[in-house]
Write a structure and sequence with these properties.
Length: 959
């Protein structure tokens, strides 16, 4: 909502040679009036009132063109005109443009305040006294805003859907401004007027006119002439055209009378300013709420207040999310919330929410003082629906098939069921919007529409009653299919952000279309095509569990139908294989699923799916500890991609090849490949891309490089690259990419580097991602590294917990880096004093590393095996293992692991009194690192070198 406009008082704003008098709509330069347009004067008023502040374009548009959509160019034209007026004859600058934000009034402003005249004594002239002051919750800003508008405008219409509280707000505003009208406020209820010809009579009765002639309107004008009063015309929507003429004549003839109207659509009077009354604010669905925070929202506050009027109800933290969900379900509509709150003690909050989700229109109460149309929510909607023309009613029914927002083209597509052309649809949609049955939302230059949930549920029942449900749902499903088939075609040619803006919010429509397609009266082939078309969106939303279940259903239907086209089956099989790869427990059939994907690609002569099948198979083989087989598949993948000049696929093959090479001990080759890729994709202008191969390309390259950097001796740079990859993944909004970056790279790298604070922070992010999208593969990783961090912090019981978590990882077939994980557990057990268990685990680690050709972590396994032997008392064997660890690490270029082994061996040598040998060993290892290197092991090594140097100096001095 726009910030409140300047108060309707006698303030004068003085700047330069100008004096601005908003109350009189007057601008003076050196005492002489300046000719200036009304919109420009409004802009100047708001800018001067908020001098020194940035006033956004949106605020200016809403203040100067309330409830009217105008292009931003209108604002620019008026700003330019205003600047010309202010700069004429001078050089001083008054209005500065703040790029991308709005405008700021930069000249110094003085404000003069003259004493306002004392309000005249109130004379109660209306035949009917003003109704009592209503209790209003969560609307103080609206009341202040309307009071300001009434002071500056002679006719304000409060517009909104049924039940939003228009009458209540009008009465509250009337009491708020009562002192401004010496001759009183007259409230006229027009809801009981069934025929437009009696509207004038109702107004006459309200003001106390005798109605002695046929020209009742003239009698009203004669009676209230020269009186300063406010007329409230409540519920004008069913008398719209008649009320427009009446209002225009009253305002033309009565210069001292102000009108405040309520209606579900504007009156379209030439004097009218429209104020669209929004729903009460509700807590967002994705925001965790407590009782205290929920009560800060007007909708929840109203619910609780009304519930407390029926009994002793206190909002608890447990109830807060449920009450918030009820208020969202009721769209923040005050009437609906009040009616629901009355049921709190009958059903309880949890049951009430369930009942609303199952059948919204149960709401009614026994409040006999309320107008009949407000005694049940169904009655308020019936009232609006009966006022619609046939084409408006037909379009409203058809629009109920949309789950959320929809566009103009969606409405046009649905109106084909009613045989409307585009012009008819556009016209009817505009009228429904004016009548507050359809909400329009302008964002980024485009318009989107939606029905309130209450309206949608009501219209859906009318669709069923009219016998149009099946035809409407069939047309909806076909339209959504066309939409997502187009989305799939656009995937590689559009910016991800724009693509997601167009399609991400259609996921609920997609779900509804699928549910109908696979239902009793649906079309299963249409459902299969919908499922295949939706796969790219599920990937980008990271909704892999949902994708998997829907793909399985579509494949089952395809087998039952027996004549499903190969290209559809191929897409579904590829999605199933991909989904299986992210399962918490890796299925034994995953390899077969990837093979089937590749085979179908060959049968269909579809290179894209041949590549995807080969890539998935290679990734699977590497993941389960068969890197040499994975390398063979990657060679096949790269050759096919090069033959097709598919360079992005080639790069992905090179990235995967680098990881596989690192795991088998070819660290130098792996680093060379990744440095080339990183240089190509690590540019500030490089856009975030779609995740063609499960993870966003820039994120995947950064993560892979970070791991190789850590192994090859640059842990500091590795941590920085990992952080950047996580940030890029976060910016992409792709949960799969971010979770992969966190679980497989950022968390272990920071843990291994001794940066426990960063590790803990990344674990929190990973846990939060799990709440957003529960992708099973990383659940066990999270638990394992959480216990590993506890072990590093030497918390009681952490080593045993870590071992149990490792067992869970292996049981789920999470075999990627399993030998390294075994070595981590062995070291934790050794530190905890569990020598026997540590020996068993490190032996398992060595056996698994041999089986998997996991040469990259063999130096670490040998180091910990040496420490186990040292603790067992076999110093000779311990030293041999530690020296072998150093040699293995040096051979493959694993400098970080070499340093770790050198640290362990130097400590033993120092303990044996071989200080010079310990010093030389450690110095040689430290010399391989950059001077600015800063990670835990290197800091410890350099500190020990200083100690050894001091010991050597002491020996020399004694000698």
């Amino acid at each position: 909502m726009v910030s409140p406009s300047p108060e309707p008082d006698n303030k004068t704003y003085i700047f330069g040679p100008f004096r601005l008098l908003p109350k009189r709509q007057l601008l003076l330069r050196e005492g002489l009036p300046v000719r200036i347009g009304g919109r420009a004067l409004d802009i100047l008023t708001l800018l001067a009132h908020r001098s020194g502040e940035v006033v956004s374009k949106t605020e200016l548009l809403e203040f100067c063109w309330p409830s009217t959509f105008v292009h931003e160019s209108n604002l620019k034209v008026n700003i330019a005109a205003l600047r010309r007026v202010l700069s004429e004859g001078g050089t001083e600058s008054y209005i500065a443009t703040v790029a991308g934000r709005g405008y700021r009034f930069v000249a110094h402003v003085d404000v003069e305040q003259t004493e306002a005249p004392a309000p005249a004594r109130l004379v109660a002239t209306p035949a009917r006294p003003l109704l009592k002051h209503p209790t209003v919750i969560g609307r103080s800003d609206e009341i202040e805003c309307l009071a300001t508008k009434l002071a500056n405008t002679r006719c304000v219409t409060i517009v909104g859907p049924g039940g939003v509280g228009k009458t209540t707000i009008a009465l509250a505003v009337a009491h708020h401004v009562l002192a401004n009208y010496p001759h009183g406020v007259c409230f006229i209820d027009l809801s009981t007027v069934g025929d437009p010809q009696y509207a004038t009579a109702a107004i006459a009765a309200g003001v106390g006119a005798r109605q002695r002639s046929e020209d009742t309107l003239s009698e009203i004008i004669e009676l209230v002439h020269d009186r300063q009063m406010l007329l409230i015309l409540d519920n004008c929507e069913h008398l719209s055209s008649t009320m427009t003429a009446i209002v225009n004549r009253l305002l033309e003839s009565l210069p001292t009378v102000t009108l405040l109207a309520t209606s579900r659509e504007p009156l379209r009077s030439v004097f009218e300013q429209v104020h669209r009354l929004p729903s009460l604010d509700v807590p967002p669905a994705d925001q965790g709420v407590t009782a205290k925070s929920a009560l800060e929202f007007g909708a929840v506050h109203l619910f609780v207040t009304r519930a407390q009027q029926r009994g002793k109800y206190v909002l608890s933290d447990a109830d807060a999310p449920l009450v918030s969900a009820i208020c969202r379900r009721l769209d923040g509509i005050p009437l609906a919330i009040e009616l629901a709150a009355t049921k709190t003690f009958t059903f309880g909050v949890p049951t009430l929410l369930t009942m609303l989700e199952q059948r919204f229109l149960l709401l009614s109460n026994g409040e006999r003082l309320a107008p009949l149309r407000q005694q049940t929510l169904l009655a308020t909607l019936d009232w609006s629906y009966r006022l619609l023309s046939d084409d408006e009613a037909a379009l409203l029914r058809l629009l109920s098939v949309f789950a959320g927002v929809f566009r103009l083209q969606d409405a046009i597509a649905m109106s084909e069921v009613a045989a409307f052309d585009a012009t008819q649809t556009i016209d009817a949609l505009e009228r429904l919007t004016n009548k507050s049955l359809v909400y329009a939302d302008y964002q980024d230059g485009s318009i989107r529409y939606r029905l309130l949930e209450s309206t949608r549920a009501y219209a859906a029942e009318r669709l069923e009653d009219a016998g149009e449900r099946d035809s409407g749902l069939r047309r909806h499903a076909r339209h959504i299919l066309a939409l997502f088939e187009r989305a799939a075609e656009e995937l590689e040619s559009r910016e991800k952000r724009d693509w997601m803006a167009d399609y991400a919010d259609r996921v609920d429509d997609l779900r509804n279309a699928m549910s109908w397609s696979f239902g009793k009266t649906g079309d299963r082939m249409l459902g299969i095509r919908l499922t295949a078309a939706a796969i790219p969106l599920w990937y980008e939303l990271s909704s892999l569990s949902e994708m998997q279940s829907r793909v399985e259903r579509a494949l089952l239907a395809a087998r039952e139908l027996g004549d499903c086209p190969t290209d559809l089956t191929m897409k579904l099989v590829a999605a199933r294989a991909s989904g299986m790869s992210f399962a918490q427990h890796l299925a034994l059939s995953t390899e077969a699923a990837w093979n089937e994907c590749y085979t179908l690609g060959v049968e269909a002569k579809n290179i894209k799916y041949q590549l995807f099948g080969l890539w998935g198979l290679a990734a699977h083989l590497i993941y389960v500890g068969r890197p040499l087989e994975g390398i063979d598949r990657l060679r096949q993948f790269i050759a096919l991609a090069e033959a097709q000049a598919d360079w992005s696929a080639v790069d992905e093959g090179q990235r995967m090849m680098a990881l596989a090479e690192m795991y088998v001990g070819k660290v130098s080759s792996a680093r060379q490949r990744l440095e080339i890729l990183a240089a190509r994709y690590h540019r500030p202008s490089e856009p975030v891309r779609f995740a063609r191969f499960q993870a966003e390309r820039g994120v995947a390259i950064g993560c892979s490089l970070a791991l190789v950097l850590w192994v090859s001796g640059e842990p500091g740079r590795a941590m920085q690259v990992a952080r950047e990859a996580v940030e890029r993944a976060d910016a992409s909004g792709h949960v799969v990419s971010q979770s992969n970056a966190l679980a497989v790279f950022a968390v272990p790298i920071t843990l291994w580097s001794g940066d426990y604070e960063s590790c803990a922070r990344f674990l929190v992010m990973l846990e939060e991602n799990g709440r957003r999208e529960d992708i099973g593969i990383w659940r066990e990783w999270f638990h394992f590294f959480k216990s590993a961090l506890r072990a590093k912090r030497q918390e009681p019981g952490a080593a045993a917990e870590m071992k149990a978590r490792l067992d869970d990882l292996i049981a789920a077939r999470n075999l990627l880096r399993a030998p390294m994980h075994y070595s981590m557990v062995a070291e934790a057990l050794l530190d905890a004093g569990a020598l026997k268990d540590a020996r068993v685990v490190i032996e398992n680690a060595h056996a698994l590393a041999t089986e998997q050709v996991a040469n990259w972590c063999l130096p670490e396994i040998l180091r910990i095996a040496g420490l186990v032997e040292l603790r067992s008392g076999d110093a000779g064997k311990a030293e041999r293992l530690l020296r072998r660890s150093i040699a293995e690490a040096s051979t493959i270029g694993a400098l970080t692991l070499e340093l770790r082994a050198a640290l362990s061996l130097s400590a033993k040598l120092e303990g044996d009194g071989h200080h010079a040998e310990a010093f030389n060993l450690l110095e040689a290892s430290c010399a391989k690192f950059r001077e600015d290197g800063a990670f835990a092991d290197l800091k410890e090594a350099r500190a020990r070198l200083r100690t050894l140097r001091l010991l050597a100096d002491k020996k020399l001095s004694f000698a």
